[in-house]
Amino acid sequence: MLYESLLLLGVLSVTFMVPHLVLGVAWNLAAPEWVLWLHIFLVLLAYFVWFWRKSGQTLAMQTWKIKVVGADNAARVSLRQAFLRYALSWPSVLLFGMGILWALFDRDRQFLHDRLAGTRIVRV
After folding, report:
1. What is the pLDDT of residue 49?
2. Which of 43, 26, 47, 25 is nearest to 35 (CA)?
3. Torsions phi, psi of 119, nearest 5?
4. Any bridge partners for residue 120, and if so which?
5. According to the model, what pLDDT value does residue 73 have?
6. CB-CB neighbours of 14 under 10 Å
């Protein structure tokens, strides 16, 4: 997750900071806080869903040789599963990592958001 966060810093620099800096400098505009958070949420949504649907792996997952697949060992997660996994991962991580710690007690060692979304992480 730390490595993924470092990569996302670059993604957010280009897709988030640059447009808002241009708005601020060129037109002296600042978006409301809720718009900024929505922008971050949507940029990250596009990043994760695109990579999970394309190859099952984000850039960091490629490095660690892990992949997201459907729980039924489908070769690729469905669009619904990718959206659901992304949406459920937010509370899974933000609630003190409870959805991540869930894997310590899960019989298949799955994160809570994977269990609920019908996905799983496998080694490549």
Report:
1. 98
2. 43
3. -125, 170
4. 69
5. 73
6. 10
Residue 121 has, within 13 A of its CA and on its CB side, a CA count of: 16
Query: How far from chain centre, in Å, is Cα 93?
Result: 11
To the nearest 10 degrees (0 to 180), the angle between helices 2-12 and 33-54 is 120
For residue 68 the two structure tokens come to 């997201």
Low-confidence ranges of the chain (pLDDT < 70): none
pLDDT of residue 72: 85
* C-alpha triplet 74, 78, 81: angle, nearest 5°: 105
Residue 6: the pLDDT is 95
Measured CA to CA, the distance from residue 78 to residue 123 in angstroms comes to: 19
The model's pTM is 0.90
What is the C-alpha to C-alpha distance for residues 110 and 108, in angstroms, rounded to an integer?
Answer: 5
Cα gap 70→73, rounded to integer Å: 5
What is 49-112 written as a DSSP string? HHHHHHTS--HHHHHHTEEEEETT--SS--HHHHHHHHHHHHHHHHTTTHHHHGGGTSTT---H
